[in-house]
């Protein structure tokens, strides 16, 4: 089975959870015999793992040029000269007016630039060339950024389209939806043959707010990989006289950081031997620093900034409690990662991962009293903490990306056979 997949992020360039999910899904699929995935990315760095084929969309020509093969070898980072010439033979219109470079290609900034809508449109234009060139059995597009590309590829190839909803604009905006983004999301859903949602919570949003047929919407929960030897070898550094409660993620309104600070203030009225860590970056960071100062708890609060890779796991292992107070969390992999490290988690009832987790504490995101009680209990009741730490490790060990890959493969087969 040949899968043509469109994504906006992929490790080692990580801007958010979409990169990790794209990696894990494709890696899970790569374990299935006979599945070949071609992953289309706006601007690969060339350091991506080679368990799948990656097409750099910034190196696919959309306007005719005739460069020498040796010149191409020096200019192309990801694609080969042979790829370039094959794509060039399938240019379907003259896109010179788009401001192409010397290779007739459209360039991408990478990430989420100010001209994001233009880059999404350019990505869709290039998808038309790729879909005319590459053989595939099914098309898979991740999140609204690549939905137009997926729709275009389906229209060109006639192959079925699966779209993967990792989040909707209702989640990102607390209901203050951007009509342009909503329109792109809904158009992708309307054209899709199957809509994979990272949780039942997200599935219900897709059905109720985007008016989609429930029969084509399925919940496809995320997972985690077993910890590497390097991560397992990390030795935690803890002060026996203090506990550490951690928030780790984007400091944006979707993640509910203010509820974490308010709950922390309640805890610190009962004890002062707990420190709070808010790791991450986002547009609410300065507001949270100010709020901690206003509540008189700045001396017990730490803001270490954005973390990646090994730093994330060091943070989990150095923490006694992990908290994810998201207002609307389609899934949320962070609690699973924390639980892998033996760090008990408190999550909001508005989190999709709560559908597959039982060995954690769940509170409403707005209930700062319940959240504070949970934090205090885990920091002061050693037996309770030990129970959730040990049982959490066991529970998460059963949630694997290989199982997710197999389920996605079965879904592909059903869609194709339909």
Explained architecture:
By secondary structure, this protein is α/β, with parallel strands linked by helices. It has two domains: 2-222 and 402-417, 3-Layer(aba) Sandwich (Rossmann fold), CATH 3.40.50.2000; 229-397, Glycogen Phosphorylase B (Rossmann fold). It is 42% helix and 14% strand. The strands form two sheets. The chain has a seven-stranded parallel β-sheet, with helices on both faces. Strand 11 (321-324), helix 13 and strand 12 (345-348) form a beta-alpha-beta unit. Helix 13 crosses helix 15. It is elongated, with a radius of gyration of 23 Å.
Features:
Rossmann fold; alpha/beta; 13 strands; 418 residues; 16 helices; single chain
E-strand count: 13
Q: Report strand %.
A: 5-15%
What's the overall average pLDDT, rounded? 95
How would you sum up the major sheet? 7 strands, parallel
SSE string: EHEEHHHEHEHHEHEHEHEHEHEHEEHHH
> What fold name goes in the CATH topology slot of the largest domain?
Rossmann fold
Strand order of the largest sheet: 3-2-1-4-5-6-7
Q: Looking at this structure, what is the CATH superfamily of the largest domain?
A: Glycogen Phosphorylase B
Q: Which CATH architecture of the largest domain would you pick?
A: 3-Layer(aba) Sandwich
Determine the fraction of residues in helical runs and give it as a percent range: 40-55%
**Can you tell me the number of structural domains?**
2
Q: So what's the overall shape?
A: elongated
- Using only C-alpha atoms, the radius of gyration works out to 23 Å
Low confidence ranges: none
